[in-house]
Automatic annotation (TrEMBL), chains A, B, C, D:
It comes from Halanaerobium saccharolyticum subsp. saccharolyticum DSM 6643. Its cofactor is FMNH2. Coiled coil: none annotated. The chain crosses the membrane at residues 329-350. FMN binds at R125, A126, S127, G283, K298, P299, T300, P301, S302, R324. This is Chorismate synthase. The lineage of its organism: Bacteria, Bacillati, Bacillota, Clostridia, Halanaerobiales. Belongs to the chorismate synthase family. Its EC number is 4.2.3.5.
Amino acid sequence: MSGSILGDIFKISTWGESHGKALGVVIDGCPAGLKISEADIQKDLDRRKPGQSPFATPRKEGDEVEILSGIFEGKTTGTPISMIIFNKNQKSKDYSALKDVYRPAQSDYSYDLKYGFRDHRGSGRASGRETAARVAAGAIAKKILAALELKITAYTSSIGPIEIDPKNYDEDYIMQNFLYMPDPEALKKAESYLRKLIKKNNSSGGTIECVVKNVPEGLGDPVFDKCDALLARAVMSIGAVKGVEIGSGFEAAEMTGYEHNDFYRYNENEINKTTNNAGGTLGGITDGSDIFLKAAVKPTPSIEKTQQAVSKSGENIDLSIQGRHDPVIVPRAVVVVEAMVALTLVDLLLKNMTARMEYLEKIY
Amino acid sequence: MSGSILGDIFKISTWGESHGKALGVVIDGCPAGLKISEADIQKDLDRRKPGQSPFATPRKEGDEVEILSGIFEGKTTGTPISMIIFNKNQKSKDYSALKDVYRPAQSDYSYDLKYGFRDHRGSGRASGRETAARVAAGAIAKKILAALELKITAYTSSIGPIEIDPKNYDEDYIMQNFLYMPDPEALKKAESYLRKLIKKNNSSGGTIECVVKNVPEGLGDPVFDKCDALLARAVMSIGAVKGVEIGSGFEAAEMTGYEHNDFYRYNENEINKTTNNAGGTLGGITDGSDIFLKAAVKPTPSIEKTQQAVSKSGENIDLSIQGRHDPVIVPRAVVVVEAMVALTLVDLLLKNMTARMEYLEKIY
Amino acid sequence: MSGSILGDIFKISTWGESHGKALGVVIDGCPAGLKISEADIQKDLDRRKPGQSPFATPRKEGDEVEILSGIFEGKTTGTPISMIIFNKNQKSKDYSALKDVYRPAQSDYSYDLKYGFRDHRGSGRASGRETAARVAAGAIAKKILAALELKITAYTSSIGPIEIDPKNYDEDYIMQNFLYMPDPEALKKAESYLRKLIKKNNSSGGTIECVVKNVPEGLGDPVFDKCDALLARAVMSIGAVKGVEIGSGFEAAEMTGYEHNDFYRYNENEINKTTNNAGGTLGGITDGSDIFLKAAVKPTPSIEKTQQAVSKSGENIDLSIQGRHDPVIVPRAVVVVEAMVALTLVDLLLKNMTARMEYLEKIY
Amino acid sequence: MSGSILGDIFKISTWGESHGKALGVVIDGCPAGLKISEADIQKDLDRRKPGQSPFATPRKEGDEVEILSGIFEGKTTGTPISMIIFNKNQKSKDYSALKDVYRPAQSDYSYDLKYGFRDHRGSGRASGRETAARVAAGAIAKKILAALELKITAYTSSIGPIEIDPKNYDEDYIMQNFLYMPDPEALKKAESYLRKLIKKNNSSGGTIECVVKNVPEGLGDPVFDKCDALLARAVMSIGAVKGVEIGSGFEAAEMTGYEHNDFYRYNENEINKTTNNAGGTLGGITDGSDIFLKAAVKPTPSIEKTQQAVSKSGENIDLSIQGRHDPVIVPRAVVVVEAMVALTLVDLLLKNMTARMEYLEKIY
């Protein structure tokens, strides 16, 4: 197996390289009867595609998705949904110069070690471009979740040292700026910070936060398939992510039990928690609270500033990677985090349908 | 599925509740010809078992493992290995008082929501006691890894606000203290900190670091089965873990590309990296560098200090959980982290055997 | 993986050797809230256990099952159910004489080829004794199916050349005779045939038929997970089975389309088929018709009559396997077929709960 | 899940409907370094495609395959291989007349029961056209097997009542006739038989045999993943197959142990069996003998001869399906059987690489 299949019920199988003919995804296990159109998917793809912002690579890709199977008269049929995105701009650049170079913080070296050779053009399968297929599948997952009124919101929570201030949080603002930040003040500082880095031919890291509201109870399974464990895997599988927190995350390590425990209060015929350090799960199973997670994203590895690299045959190289790359991966990764969260939750949602005998009686 | 099976080739299936008759694990997919004995496994179980330290619950459990199948004349046969640990102390306490109480930061509430009812005795399946089965399986995984000279070392890196100082790092010291800390000075402070919390009927969080040395190249698969993604899932599946970092982790978010990129140098006929911010993988695939990960562990939720809880039927309760619990989960979780890392790496090691056509020719 | 895990949602993981300490099974994914007791399981185990009939091996095994986890106050909790059967009679015989012999039609040779060595005692993991674990898991699967009023009936349809006559079919008679035949006349002939073979130190093959009534619609998935494909795999995985038919089976090959097609008629507000050559599925998906399958079982390979065998080191041997073995495997395999059918259907039943968007709305 | 993913290591994910835009397959887990071209795949597709014989439907489809990913400079890269076949002739017919009709022996009714509605055009996902994707994947599997000199040969062994005579078996003749029969005399009779049926607007069933030579030892795993069990599932998953036999098959049921057991003889430094009733496996694991299996194929359900059908709304219909269909499915299914056998064996071959500790040392 080459690691490109995810999910137990809602299974996605992605494929494609940065500079191949196309990339795509097959979804096996989408329930029948979901209304879906290419426009539903395109909307999310457009948030990820390059060439749209002063803070993103100018590579021109329309990233137009085409549905090839599994939809009939506007609804899913229950059979595999195949989606394809043709690469249109893949021949524009000559990659032969980098053919035998191991660029720092890229997968060139490890792919060669694993497979003996590699498709070196634009990182091949290891390109961030691969995430377009995840976003397409994630858009369908979101549509299922939306039918249950579940809502996923991800946003940029920091760029380098610039962090958002929770007091300024404005959800509506997220989609109104190129960096997908919910805080107009932090945005200004981040833009200024990035412009300086661009001038220095350098790049920045950052963080992404994701909140899920109106989460059904019971998602996640004990032991290895805890909701938080599967979310961590899904989000950490995004190439640039180096850390994942659920709820209180690393702060929990410095807290006492009395500080960290979320107390319960019963009022207005509901059990509620006074805090949400847990981040939405107890024992790995959702309890109806909001899910809260945070991801650390490393800086774009491709920079023009000269670095120490090495060639396959063992020559030390001073490498300056020409061309303009994303000065920060974070904004384009926001919708990818949403997709990975959606894909994880849909799979858990479907699995949880089999958790109780009384559910069988509701269906059969 | 109830989430208790892990792995694609080296599959483990764990079972058992805190206060049931026994708990155990079945391993399906262990290669034939591995020398293994109950003593190999007991050694790790003894590091996790309760009642051994002033900083652990005094529950008396020998945690003696018995191998029931899959071993013949001291070697694995290639067929399932079943291991069992009988619960000996499970009837010593009356849990009926907590039968209908939802304790803060425990799984009581979410299990009831998911399954409609639960085995309430000592948290049932959600008890940390479940990890004994992981440790038993992990000990076998480690034995396979040891045959390839791969070595996993986990240790306590902080208790509450007390962090180890890398300058004081002494690997040998880890196994010589109850808190599994590699820094004698930090240990003293941590012990003092914990004693104060015990007096206040409170508990502490902390962090665990894990280093893997002599890692074979090529472990991990592109996209969803990246080595770091699977490690994150495995470690986050430990009940108390709230965050996982690989390599630079959350620090990466504040760094520039030039700072974060690990440069290459070729010397003495080897390709080396000048730093290891990546933490052992590139594009999710190991490159021979050390794997480095860190986990945040929340404070023990069971504390005697009075908390606000609620009953199943909706009464607000002032809850003081009697009996002495672990004042900190971290030390007993160190060997569990090692187990989860070992289980993940063994599975990737076995999968990687199928990655190249030339490997087929070596075997057939 | 060593092939001992079956199922996608209702996953069973079996373990144990013929002459080890015990054998057992872990079920991961049984819905919560099912009433189950050891007696429910013992009932089926007793149909398989040895020593009960003049036509079965006299090995004494009580095959008493013990449930170790996953049941609380008489109901499944949704967490793994572990069941164990201790081997009580495993030391009664010295197997060292056969240690290096490859017996005809047994797995001795292939296990040595695959694993390099083997547990030779009583065929180790390859013993038919392994099926006790399947029967235990199957009993729980049947209990779920019974809640939906689905009923599985298997029986002996032939012993060597003696076939049952459909005209004599008496379902009640199946459980009243040692050979589990539904036809009293065929039974007499079969008994006589077997007695002659026993005298000649030889053994017989036979067939088993299985009918499933009151099957819910929609079980099975297109392409590879067709209901009939998964049933074929499940039944063919019983060691002695050499062929499987669904519906018309091999007769279909000689028929014309007009003869074979099951016509539809609508009457009394129902769509019905005038025949059932399909055997219960269309395109691999159940349509509410009875499932009908048939399995061919080879003769018991262990016979006292002298055969040509070979030793591991390459000596030709005249082998007479001492001790009384089952003169025919069929009767003891009847309940194993039922178990395999039940396990397959339960898994499909649970998976089918996720097939439609409208089912989500029924549950969430 | 919708049943369109097969395999544990060499995973294939197929998609597409009879009258959609295209159909295809993604292979996840093909080892890197295999030389493969579109021509390798086209060769097998051409054996399955329609319009080539007087005994096949004249639908015009070039079935031209295009590889979209996973191959670089003529070799597999170890990442997913995506293959697509565009449907070119899908709009030539108006299917609206059959929109609400349940045709006998087709999946119309069961798909409606399962999913609530269906893509009715040419049976949608349930069309035999789906097998083109299997054949494409199978061609790559065969290429891997060929590297180990393993050879799979399937052929038509009967058409209706006309069976081949083993004495006339001529392997070279198989590819020289439209019916893929290895016996020129049987061919003549079969052609004559089919011509008569065509005149009567009827169709025929038949059987396919498959022999695998030069099989590596050790393929297959104990208990549920026996080589024969997985072959049975794979072959039974072909829509029209109603029965599968391994080795002696249903004849085994009438034999005695002494007749059925394959005796061993040691000569010329090799262990050999004097017969091969087992059909290539012992205890489900290959021992180096030829694998032999046989499948029963039902008659083509679509016939012009008037049948009794029913509409969705409950009207009884006299149905004559216009247009020329395959008078027999068998010849076009021969290469599909080969594909399913190849896919099963490749997956077992890759899994068996992890069966022994000594194999790890060969690779690491």
